[in-house]
Amino acid sequence: MLEARDRVGGRVVSVDLGNGVITEGGAEFIGPTQDRIAALAKDVGVETFPTYNTGDNVYFRNGTATRYSSSGPLGPVPPDPTGAVEAEKAILQLDDMAKTIPLDAPWTAPRAKEWDAQTFETWKLANVLTPSGRFLLDVAIASIFSCEPRDVSLLFVLFYLAAAGNESNPGDIERLVNTGGGAQERRFVGGSQLVPIELAERLGDRVVLSRPVRRIVTENGTVTAVADGYSVTAQRAVVAVPPPLAARIDYSPQLPALRDQLTQRMPMGTVMKVHAVYPEPFWRAAGLTGQAVADTPPAQATFDNTPPSGTPGILMAFVEAEAARQRLGASRDDLPTRPPSTSPTGRRRSGRAAARSASPRPASCSTTAAPSASPPIASTGPAPRPRRSGTATWTAPCARASAAAKEVLTAL
Ligand SMILES: Cc1cc2nc3c(=O)[nH]c(=O)nc-3n(C[C@H](O)[C@H](O)[C@H](O)COP(=O)(O)OP(=O)(O)OC[C@H]3O[C@@H](n4cnc5c(N)ncnc54)[C@H](O)[C@@H]3O)c2cc1C
After folding, report:
1. Which residue of 29, 192, 241 sits with most ligand 1 atoms within 8 Å of its CB, as the best mutation to test the pocket?
2. Ligand 1 center–CA 369 separation, angstroms
3. Which of 129, 177, 281, 408 is deepest in the core (most CB within 10 A)?
């Protein structure tokens, strides 16, 4: 197994916060229907634990924070007074449409051409009329795909929803966005990167790091993968990298035209995670899950990322899609400050909450860009700006970013 980076895991990576505490810079959650990764983790002895999900979530919109239970009638949809019903109706409609998609050939769905001829944004504008209903769908798309609704075809969205199931359970939006019963239900003890690390240990010296494959040559019934200073000849090669990265490899003979075109048309999303670290998960004492949806970018969705021991308290915020794109290449001085509350009510609520809340001590935060921004293979062109990708840990500026997340959670 030739790996470009100097570590295994790819988009699954632990961030060391010191004192034996780690958090996840990349993927961390699994839920029902993710059977294969669950089985793999079990095989290599990595246990899971439930994501903290006790109490209320918070919805912060137009300067007002509202607590709600995700086990309420609208499920994961925040109780927006003007948008929730419309968003829920749209979700049910999308789930029904997803049921018509054959997973092994989505382009053969009865309405595939019509659905692939429009972006999700086009569908949303035609079917959801309220600004808040549209906002809720925007957050769902950014959370699932790390892109904007205008970036993705309706057919692809439906295919992805359908693909969130398994042999016995259909996929739907709820499965993707829910914590309890959904894709965020569980986390890995010791951090998700333990799974690839344990697997790599079992594979031993068959795993070769820091060897980006540049060229794959098929001739005389064998395949040779040529990496920097290293090559492997075998009967077959499995290229297990995202399509746009697969396109950077030079193939001989060339890839079939349709496969080559596919790799040009499957762009990566853009996502960062911000971890605000506190002495305690103070929101738990306030009866909050740590999960919030907010209309105040950069952080539009948060989770309680505290380790199973219960300390330190880690509040993780996703920065996704346009919000993340705008911050690629940011230096510590560019880190966002909390936007002012837009309504007097919001300001009052925020002030009261700040006064009531425990005083958090943000110890560090990390920001991890998606692989689209962290090519494992050196590329030509202008030198990347420092801190463009990978994991960075700051101390002071984190206070500003985490203050925004904290305010969302405590502004009640
Ligand atoms: C911030 C973030 C949060 C996420 N959260 C979740 C989550 O909670 N739950 C979930 O299920 N999914 C989540 N995901 C998605 C999940 O990380 C990916 O679906 C998964 O990691 C894909 O695995 P992969 O092996 O296909 O690709 P990758 O993880 O991208 O691995 C590809 C590997 O190939 C290497 N490589 C690339 N090119 C070459 C080359 N030419 N030669 C050799 N090696 C090469 C790369 O360095 C990398 O190690 C998240 C993703 C991100 C970015």
Report:
1. 241
2. 12
3. 408
